[in-house]
Amino acid sequence: MSNVAVQSLLVAIGGIGLLVAVFLLARRGLLSLRYALGWMAVSVLLLGAALLLVLIGGISHSLPITPTGLLAGVGLAFLLAVCLQLSISLSGQQEAIRALSEANALLAERLQRLEEHVAGAEFGEGSSAVAERVGVRVPRTAPTRQTPRLQRF
Q1: Of the candidates 81, 107, 120, 135, which lies 20 to 30 Å from 13 by C-alpha distance?
Q2: 3-state SS of the chain: helix, strand, coil percent to 5?
Q3: Is residue 52 within 8 Å of residue 44, measured between CB atoms?
Q4: Rounded to the nearest 5 degrees, what angle is found at the Cα of 151, between the Cα atoms of 147 and 153?
């Protein structure tokens, strides 16, 4: 067996191993479907690269690069593309986390004002005065009508 055939076989075994590992990780829920499909595509590309390595092996005499070097260069370019895609995803997640943190801080401040309002109402302060101080709008109730007293004649 030639060196190119051995290298092609090792790349194919690596592709199958990656496919099985990604499938098991996705099945256990450790890898999301979005990334599992991407890595399964990578493993299929590795299987295709193994076939391409055999085809390029025959042509390698006319190329200024070895089949292994060509495969390594393509693999490196692909890994750089994956890193770029993951960086883009991470940037989006960072922005979402920032927005959620700001919303959480606003809700915590609102809760604190409401707790102060409730505490002020429990200790006898006028509810409208406390509400104005903490910035909470309290709905005003309609004035109740008092029933007139019957007059004795």
Answers
A1: 81
A2: 75, 0, 25
A3: no
A4: 165
Give the three-state DSSP class for 29.
coil
- Identity of residue 81: A
Q: What is the pLDDT of residues 60-103, one digit of tens each?
A: 667 677 777 777 777 888 888 888 888 888 888 899 999 999 99
Contacts of 136 (CB under 8 A, 6+ apart): 113, 114, 117
pLDDT tens for residues 115-143?
Answer: 887 877 666 555 555 556 656 555 555 55
Tokens 């109402």 belong to: 121
Place of tokens 């895609």: 85
Which pLDDT belongs to residue 52? Answer: 80
CA dist 96 and 79 (Å) reads 26
Give the integer Cα–Cα distance in Å for 65 and 31: 36
Contact between 56 and 67 under an 8 Å Cβ cutoff? The reply is yes
Q: Is 57:66 a contact under the CB 8 Å cutoff?
A: no
